[in-house]
Design a protein that fits this description.
The chain is an alpha/beta fold. It has 8 helices and 12 strands.
């Protein structure tokens, strides 16, 4: 009997219960699922921070921790973890991110706000948007989400560059940079900059005054990744000076974003309330069930976290 502990909020359990049972039944494995944190003989823990579980050392039969979230910065530093930790990568999460990023890139590329917000009866047909093939886009972070967004934008003929901490193998139609020197080069090309980096010690506050000064004057920034990637004061100063023309932000250092935060009242900032993408119960439960099946079959787990690097 495989014992699975679902450690998340009651609301999460209600959301995932039916789909998780369905996905596990499809594996033909014999199992039981519990939400009782005292189930110390659990073999797998499905984890979200909302469950309140912090000490994993007491689970002596544990084989793996399967995160419900794509971001794992809240757990990678937990020294009680002695088993593989897997982050969530599912098709619903990826598709949602691609759609949000593509939509906002096209919004800014075509300058749709100019017409949507100005309906005053004046016929302004003296300017035309450039073609995608004339627009440089840089994505910081070429993991599952970043790479999927890069490919989608490249398929629309945008000139896409990407940056990652380590060198990537050749990716068709996407110019890849890596390392500190590569970061500067990638930022210089960023007429539209998309932040999809994991949150680590190295990336916290990465977009500060120095880094923002490297992007072309009048650039657009999209951040659907992590709020702590951006130094808020530096970004607001860059917007005021015109160095950054507009920032569309989905994630923030404090959430919900406080009502008195300057982002709310800036004409050059768009706030979306952390809705760029979300883990879908049906597709994520398929990933969880597949990983449990792989664990029981002696295969390596999918989407393993490198805890040294933090993602």
């Amino acid at each position: 009997m495989i014992k699975i502990l679902f450690s998340a909020s009651q609301k999460d359990w209600e959301k995932y219960k039916t789909e998780l049972i369905r996905a596990m039944n499809d594996t033909k494995l014999v199992y039981e699922i519990t939400t009782d944190l005292n189930c110390l003989d659990a073999n797998y823990i499905i984890y979200a921070p909302s469950g309140g579980l912090a000490d994993f050392s007491k689970f002596r039969s544990l084989k793996a921790i399967l995160s419900l979230w794509a971001g794992v910065e809240n757990i990678t530093g937990n020294t009680t973890i002695k088993v593989p930790l897997c982050r969530m990568v599912d098709t619903g999460l990826t598709q949602g991110m691609v759609e949000w990023v593509t939509g906002h890139v096209l919004r800014h590329h075509l300058d749709l706000d100019m017409h949507i917000k100005v309906q005053d009866g004046v016929w302004r047909n003296n300017t035309y948007p450039p073609l995608a093939s004339d627009r440089n886009i840089t994505i910081l972070g070429l993991g599952e989400l970043g790479l999927s967004c890069a490919k989608a934008l490249s398929n629309l003929n945008f000139k896409v560059s990407g940056w990652s901490r380590g060198q990537k193998s050749n990716i068709e139609n996407i110019k890849c940079y890596f390392g500190n020197e590569g970061l500067s080069e990638a930022l210089k090309r960023a007429e539209i900059l998309i932040l999809l980096l994991p949150l680590t010690k190295e990336t916290t506050g990465l977009m500060d005054e120095r880094m923002l000064s490297k992007v072309p004057h009048g650039s657009i920034i999209l951040n659907p990744g992590r709020g702590h990637l951006i130094n808020d004061s530096a970004l607001l100063n860059a917007i005021e000076s015109g160095q950054v023309r507009h920032a569309t932000l989905d994630v923030f250092e404090i959430e919900p974003l406080p009502k008195d935060h300057p982002y709310w009242v800036s004409d050059n900032v768009t706030v979306t309330p952390h809705i760029a993408s979300v883990t879908r119960a049906s597709s994520s439960c398929d990933v969880i069930a597949k990983n449990i099946l792989r664990g029981e079959s002696g295969e390596s787990f999918l989407h393993l976290v490198d805890r040294k690097n933090g993602y």
